[in-house]
Amino acid sequence: RDGWRSLLDELATIDRQALDEADRINAEIFRRQLEDRVMDHRFGGYRLPINADSGFHTGLARLPKEVPLSSTADYEGYIARLAAMPRYFDEQIALMRQGLAVGMTVPRVTLEGYERTIASHVVDEVEDSVFWAPFRQLPTTVPAAEHERLRRAGAAAVRDGAVAAYAAFLRFMLDEYLPGARASLGASELPDGRDYYRYLIRHFTTLDL
Length: 209
Fold this sequence. Notes:
mainly alpha
């Protein structure tokens, strides 16, 4: 939050009249984005890293298709990302536990069947994971002498990184989050709910209603 506020202060020092029209529009859009992030943090939106149809874990499942994978360094970076997933998932779980403690959760009724979005990544065989796909056939731009090493490291990272992270998240969802999620529906029922709801209207529509 402090970083976004610092950027807002820095943005305010720019002479808008010295900018051309396109940059003035960009500056205004950027200002709104920063203010939105500051407000979201104020209301604790970071305690809701999932919603009824997606979440941080579903976005990560697109990783194999969204990162560059054309060199040895690219593959080493991808492996490092997989290995870091347990730490990242633990951080998200810690935030969701904060939400449980203060009643800021996704409505329980909207999470029926949600565990399937997690369980599909908890596989017994590394080769069945979506995160293994880049290792099935490495590109010719990666030296053949590196393939076996990268596959071994990749298998360990998929198993001990990605799959382990999703398994821990699944246990948390089934044992803690789903039983503890709120029975109410509207955002107005959350802490500071009325003001949070007004903020969400501005966030999604730009209207102050």
